[in-house]
Write a structure and sequence with these properties.
flat; 8 helices; alpha+beta; two-stranded parallel sheet; 25% helix
Amino acid sequence: MGKDGESSISDEEWERFLREAEAGTRGAPQEPSARARMVARRLREEPARPDAWRAHEPPRRGGGKARYVAGLLVAAGLLVVALNPGRVTGWFGGGGGAGAPLAAESERPDQPPPTTAADQRPTREQPFRGSPAARWDDGAAGIGMPAARATGWMGKEQVAQALDRSRDFLVASNLDHGVLRGERPKRAIALINPHQQDVQRYLAAAFRSPSRGDDPLLLFSRFDQAKVRLVGDVVKSRGRITYREGERGAVEVTADVTFVYPVARAGADGDEVVRTIVRREIVMSWDDPAKVITERGTFSLRSYKSDTTNGGCGTYTGYLTPEFGTGSASPDDGRTIDPYDRSTPVEAGGRGGSARTCGTATRS
């Protein structure tokens, strides 16, 4: 031993000793020397070395099997989505017309909405169950509105006002709860040019003595409260408003909107709920008062067409008359219609027109 308790063995001799001991050299010491015991004691007494702040620690092994199984599950899920995306949509609430609300309609769709399970009947708690309308917006929110721009005789702000009032007419004639209960649509009528004599004659006759030619349902949705009640406070709608320059510089606004009304028998204790569906295509002309006799803030009706499902066929009482018990049965002339298909225009003739009789709806 040297001074201060240190070994007098040189470093070279110590390293040779370690190599020979590890190799099992004959004659190598069988127990560590004093230096070895001292080093071992020093290592035990010194604290652990802190980790370097920028040191990289290799990831621990393990969990490989779990990652492998998870990868297989992800791959299988992607395969199911590719083969049957509709089914996956159903897992997340998309079945039966449920799911995320649709974006506003900005142009005519190129196909009808997908069908849903036939056994998903409407109920009082879920009146739109099993219907594409379950994903439609409520009331006026379902009517897509275009951006305003200067057109014809109107500046941008005037066009915006004309568009808003056109939507107001749709609301007052098809969504107003008083009108739906059978009241006279006074606010809607007030938006129609009072100098348009043929329309004013039609309106007067339609509410006085409804008939095939003078049917208020050509423009307005009304139910007889003594026979039919709306289920809940929500009416679903989907459609859009467009516009262009018309005759004599007028701003011609076209509305194409479908309304879905869930109804039940008035005073009935049963749970039967059916739906009446009305699609309207109305062209309104906001005329230049300098060229056409009109009142500011009113429009002239250019045309109005409608398709109605389960609202009555061959009956002209002034009210929509849905049928119960048989779904939406109607006399059948061989023609079928999907009331939710908005990919084609409303056919000429409309309710009460001579070009059509009653057909059969493919769904309600």
